[in-house]
């Protein structure tokens, strides 16, 4: 249990008798970047709110740093930083004042403010009213607010929402830096797999309140079985020939035939076989199933 | 206790640049200033009435209290209760506020207490400025006899009573503003309530004291009776309407906490 920064045990949560979270067992290892993936409305934000005790979970189902959340709310929140939905910023205060106010609430020295502003690149806009910030600047201020207490665990709800490519790369690098160089555990939610794939060490996929997959990013990759794509002339005959030779055909279009990939040697044998029987093979290559499609498959089939 | 102090200080930090905070200071300055100007510019008319010192003070104080107590105080309280909560509604910061490692009850109490403190500051300034501007008036118009009577005890007692009588309204409006993010609902209900309060207090309805909105008016109308006495400062503070106001305040404060702690989850 001590290896997990976050652990939920068969978590169930209802809103007005409607189940939102069903039997969710998250296991977020300490020091990992955990990508929490799911389409909109899957229950990601609800889960994050439960992890912050904003929504009250049934007792003995949610453990943060090995401690039950309802009984250790303040002690746990002291070690957690969060960005939930849109960053919560007071528009009539400047970025600096927003951070000062948070320092005040957390009992931290205000010198931390400048450090945070520099970290997220807002030093120049420090005294500008936060309502005049661009979406990306607000998001960065939100992340600065989450980081100001130097928390061991960061909960980031779609932190790259509304950011331009530069901003997205900055946030990504910041997350990698925090996890690798500062030993932080980060749970980051997203509905974009490509986003998670680049940073996360672990992935959890949720849809309609249910956890459909949980594991390392490599385990997710292994789920996607490689395929062999063959481009060949006289495709109908080739297809017939391959079937008779004992191959199972996964898919067939006007241009190419797809069969499961086994190994390089087998591919070579297959190639020779086709050529020896008078077919012209214009291309033969190994194709990994796109993770994006895999994600769609996992979420659709359940 | 530390949580409460931190939250209270943060409330001040957040609102120190808003109208709600400055209204507590500007309101008494402007109203007392205007009345003093009135007494200064029409001093000849007033001098012709040959008021004794006590009565002149009472007329002067009454001018501020009349506008203040009946209309401005209830509306200021409505506005105050609204803006303390609106600062979180508008910025969608309730959830962040309740995700801080602070006691939830302290966060809520600090908000309520901050509104109470602002109303106290506002009324305290009214008492102090009335006294100060009165003496200024005496300097500007030496023919006045304001220096021959000391109204400070009366002023402090009276404004303190008015402060206590406004807490019932505050608690109702606080809850309304907690539940609804928009301005119109609490303002509309508060407006109707205030009108109702003024009417019921003026016709001396037997059960007017049960409506918190009538409490300031009730306190004021009891003061007209006071004027006939030889010592106007000799009145009771904890009358029926003040007790009712306090009971309303305590009960609604507790109910408000349960609303606030559920509110944070949305």
Automatic annotation (TrEMBL), chain A:
Q: Which residues cross the membrane?
A: none
Residue ranges constituting the ABC transporter domain according to the UniProt record: 6-233
**GO MF, any single term:** ATP binding
User: What keywords appear on the UniProt entry?
Assistant: ATP-binding, Nucleotide-binding, Transport
The answer to whether the entry has keyword Transmembrane is no
PROSITE patterns xrefs: ABC_TRANSPORTER_1, ABC_TRANSPORTER_2
Query: InterPro entries, from UniProt?
Result: AAA+_ATPase, ABC_transporter-like_ATP-bd, ABC_transporter-like_CS, P-loop_NTPase
Family statement: Belongs to the ABC transporter superfamily.
* Record's protein name: ATP-binding cassette domain-containing protein
Query: Could you tell me which species this protein originates from?
Result: Pedobacter punctiformis
UniProtKB/TrEMBL annotation, chain B:
Q: Name one Pfam family in it.
A: ABC2_membrane_4
Query: So where does this one cross the membrane?
Result: 20-40, 60-82, 112-138, 158-181, 188-208, 242-260
Which UniProt key words apply to this protein?
Membrane, Transmembrane, Transmembrane helix
Asked if the record carries the keyword Transmembrane, the reply is yes
Highest taxon above the source species:
Bacteria
| Coiled-coil annotated residue ranges, if any | none
* Protein name (database record): ABC transporter permease
Q: Which organism is it from?
A: Pedobacter punctiformis
